[in-house]
Amino acid sequence: MAAMEIAAAVAELVAKHCTDVVMSPGSRNSPLAYALLARRDVRVHMRIDERSAAFTALGLARVQRRHVGVVMTSGTAVANAYPAVIEAHMSHTPLAVISADRPERLVGTGASQTIWQQGIFGRYAETQQVQSLDDVHAASFTATQVHINVALDTPLVPEQLPEPVGQPRRVGPGALARSGTGYVDHGAVDVDLTRNTLVIAGDEAWEVPGLEHVPTIAEPTAPTPFHQVHPLAARFFAQSEVAISHDGGDFAADTKPEQVIVVGHPTLHRDVMALLADPDIEVVGISRTETFTGQPDKRGSRVNAAGQPTDTWLKICEAAGDVGADTVRQALTEDEFGFTGLHVAAAVCDTLGVGDTLVLGSSNPVRDASFVGMPFDGVDTYSARGAAGIDGTVSQAVGVALATQALRPDEIRAPRTVALMGDLTFLHDANGLLIGPDEPRPGNLTIVVANDDGGGIFEALEPGADNLRGAFERVFGTPHGADIEQLAEAYGADYRRADTLAELNEALLELEAQPNPITVVEAATTRTTRRALAARLNR
């Protein structure tokens, strides 16, 4: 069967489920390229780096909440999508890999650019092999992560460019066709809210009816709760009784919750997660996927709530949360810590407004954002919390920005997307800034890089202890000396530098008023005080 006929059928299938595909150049995927470019109902984004392409697709999919396709040629090009597929699987984000392949007769023969592509993603995405039109018609987008491997034989190019097909469309977020990516219902679980109850809301959390008035420790990507509790309050909840000063008075409080309700997938704070292992606390897991964080005593997707939290418990949680928030803000004013990543997170979060979108890198940035007040109502926040890797963060930010502005095309200027990440995260995916001149581009993306010349998160972890410092810098600190300005210039991004908190605030406010398509803001920070700062926050 002619390659172009199979490719046209695959493109039609993709168009039923995707509005966007991200494609990398190659010879074997030429038929797919021609067929997809001919479709008026699919927006094609070109990227020369398949890993960047896959993470850009992942960023688009996080916002769109439907499959986004990533298309590549055969061989190791397919393997470059593996990290994005893993993150998509772990975060339950729809993603479709459409890979070109050699005919099966060539697999295992040493043919150029030929590997075993069937089953390449293992448990993270089952391969659907396509060699004929019947295979295309049998292919499905039922799974959340899809891998369609299309074996294409020569000739790989048409005699002339295909005629355009399909009609342009404008759609909001959500599935285009019934693709089986809905939620899992684990039923309802009874909860007595007159017991001292704490909600811990993580990534993939949602507003669970019945829990609206329960004190909640929420991670930045969770919905903003009505009774938000600062994560530093967890150290109080780990104790049976604590003396707390609040509103001009001192009182002893029974602070340990009787039950903790976990919504979604929390991962950020050790003290918070330790509550789930406390044998004195009953843990209720609420999930809309097959995954439950930890080992909850009870499981469900909904709650049958009885009673309401007591005024005393609400007061205790408010006081503990205020102590945590005040501790952070006081530490930020103390000169001994200098200009750190936590200061950068505070500046970024303090300059966000309703309607903005925030993308947070893993490691310190997402945790720092949690310490300085996120989640913030009116701000959509995204972070790779599935596998929690630092890879592909720049590309995901670009995808998020593209998808956000596509959903709001009538605004006078592109909606603002701010990405906060560390220097290693930025360097790991600087290629995400490589966008061709004819490609859709973000119109208002600010990437703030907290550059402490290395792995700042390790400073406050076990490897940063004084007795282990002899091996620290080379193995964990990993200083690099990279010139962020030159990198930004090389990729055609605007650049700002901030050496102080005041300079950073000025730069962010300036960019809010007069945005550029893509701006990299380098905040030159220190990590030498991160361990002392962490100790200050926890004392």
- Strand content of the residues, in percent? 15-25%
Q: How would you state the average pLDDT, rounded? A: 93
Q: Helical content, roughly?
A: 25-40%
> What's the main sheet like?
6 strands, parallel
Number of helices: 17
CATH class of the largest domain: Alpha Beta
Count of folded domains: 3
Number of strands: 21
Indicate the CATH architecture of the largest domain. 3-Layer(aba) Sandwich
Strand order of the largest sheet: 2-1-3-4-6-5
CATH topology group of the largest domain: Rossmann fold
Give structural notes:
The structure is a single chain. 30% of the residues lie in helices and 19% in strands. The radius of gyration is 25 Å and the shape is globular. The chain folds into three domains: 3-151, Thiamin diphosphate (ThDP)-binding fold, Pyr/PP domains (Rossmann fold, 3-Layer(aba) Sandwich); 188-327, TPP-binding domain (Rossmann fold); 335-537, Thiamin diphosphate (ThDP)-binding fold, Pyr/PP domains (Rossmann fold, 3-Layer(aba) Sandwich). The strands form five sheets. Strands 2-1-3-4-6-5 form a six-stranded parallel beta sheet, with helices on both faces. A six-stranded parallel beta sheet has the order 17-16-18-19-21-20, with helices on both faces. Strands 9-8-12-13-14 form a five-stranded parallel beta sheet, with no helix packed on it. It has helices at residues 3-17, 30-37, 50-64, 76-79, 82-91, 133-138, 234-237, 270-274, 311-332, 341-350, 364-371, 393-407, 423-428, 472-477, 484-490, 501-513, 530-537, and strands at 20-23, 43-46, 69-72, 95-101, 127-130, 145-151, 188-192, 197-201, 216-218, 242-246, 249-253, 259-263, 282-286, 298-300, 302-306, 357-360, 380-383, 417-422, 445-451, 494-498, 518-524.
